[in-house]
Design a protein that fits this description.
Residues 17-192, 225-403 form the Type I restriction modification DNA specificity domain. The protein has 422 residues and is α+β, with helices and mostly antiparallel strands. Helices cover 33% and strands 23% of the residues. A 5-stranded mixed sheet has the order 4-12-9-10-6, with helices on both faces. A 4-stranded mixed sheet has the order 7-5-11-8. A 4-stranded antiparallel sheet has the order 19-26-23-24.
Amino acid sequence: MKKVREGYKMTDLGEIPVDWVVGKLGDLSEIVRGASPRPKGDPKYYGGSVPRLMISDVTRDGKYVTPKTDFLTEEGAKKSRPMNKGDLVMSISGTVALPSFLAVDSCIHDGFMGFKKIDEQLYKDYLYYEILHLREKLINSATDGGVYINLTTDIVKNFDILVPLMKEQQKISLILSSVDEQIEITDNLIEKTKELKKGLMQKLLTKGIGNSRFKDTEIGRIPEAWEIRGLIDISQGKGEYGIGAVATEYVVGNPRYLRITDIGDESKLLFNDIKGLNDEEYEKYLLKYNDVVFARTGNTTGKSYAYDIKDGELVYAGFLIKFSINPKLANVNFIKYVIQSKRYWDWVNVMSTRSGQPGINSNEYAKFLIQLPGIEEQNQISLILSSVDEQIDQYESKKEKLQELKKGLMQKLLTGCIRVKV
């Protein structure tokens, strides 16, 4: 039997400090279930001015949430569950067991629970972090055979949490809140820099650098010296479809299999689910510098990725179409920004829905019109936008490190592994 450290005791939740206690959520607060007026969409109940919390609000705002997507009438609010500004709530459907504080008086529907009359021995901010820390365990308590069943009021009421002394709860909350503040500051910097990039793209991709004479074209007003070319006109060969291989476990040192789902927003390669492939024909599908791939079907139609050599060997899948940009005519990085622009996405939205099924084939992509400055101006524009992307990457890297720091602190502070001085 494992020896318990001095100053600690063994409980059902593991080894904890001797002056901490284990308490059930139902004994420490009044837990109420949200409610929804029926029938859904009835103008008697819906479409008024009373905010109603939705899961999209929580995933957007995080700790302090302001409902912005759904509203009830006064009659609808009477059939829902009104909560007060500052109340702690938790999702029980969609993105489950996610806590947040209401920034305004709001109603919650039956996909949420609220915590009222919180015991005086429990600091509300501490409870928020405790739920966040125990979120996976809370979800597992409502899971049967790997399938999420339902996070009921009874399950939540009988769920055990750790309760330190009040001053320690407050100090723990203060430490974690300070990290949250840094994450929020970094988030704001990311959003502001993305807005800067958006404005720069609009200006640089339509007016260029130092141009004074302009002309009207089929894609809008552009500098007089620029040309309009189809994607096929600046490519070496036609658009090529990828390999139809089955994804396998990735083996370090082997090529990675690039699928539609591996391409994120702003043409970035994702690293959360790396896969390999086992196909002897893979070599002719290896991406090279100046290659750009486009998603051709489904809800991801239009997403693109310009190959970056630092991403290693990539073999592109069958639901992607590759165009190899001719470096004598175009800078692939300039093209990368053109196909992130609003005009490109407006074109995608029109092209991909004409048949009723989202999709754009190789011949259609080949005809996409691109505004083309001279190579030197393309290089200058790419350099400016790349520098903004680098700044965004730095902020996102900082945010990831802060999130890892918060995760580590929660694990140590909320279990009593490390004690805070009070």
